[in-house]
Specification:
- The chain is mainly α.
- The chain contains five helices and no strands.
- The model has no long low-confidence stretch (mean pLDDT about 90).
């Protein structure tokens, strides 16, 4: 990290210029937007699945004692076809699903942040090269 910080420090001082927002602000803003959108998307997915499962039960005239248990059992039917359902296990599986969703989004965010950093640094290098073009 020390070596990386030394290399990065060169780009923060003249003759290199920064355009617009600082890179750290861009990264934080990008991370916040990606995670908020991922959270919103997951909430919409779960609520849509919950609604669809409840509608299916209504149409089929099934008696449901616990809507949450019914939802979890049908949401992860591939798992509960193999083992018997219980509510704590269903909640644990849903929490694992949420964790894996955010892990997947974190990997996408990592690629975005690395790309953002590279684009910013290459733009600074190109600007510097334009400044010294034709000079000895």
């Amino acid at each position: 990290m020390k070596v990386w910080a030394e290399k990065e420090n060169r780009f923060l001082h003249p003759p290199y210029v920064t355009n617009g927002l600082k890179l750290s602000v861009k990264i934080r803003l990008t991370a916040a937007v990606v995670f908020l959108l991922a959270f919103f998307e997951h909430i919409l997915f779960v609520s849509n699945s919950f609604y669809n499962n409840i509608q299916k039960a209504k149409i089929c005239n099934w008696t449901i004692n616990s809507p949450i248990s019914y939802f979890l059992e049908h949401q992860f039917s591939f798992l509960f076809a193999q083992i018997s359902f219980n509510l704590p296990l269903g909640i644990f599986v849903e929490l694992m699903n949420i964790s894996l969703t955010f892990g997947w989004n974190y990997m996408e965010l990592f690629v975005m942040v690395i790309s953002l950093g590279l684009v910013t640094r290459f733009a600074q290098i190109n600007h510097r090269l334009d400044q010294i073009k034709g000079k000895v």
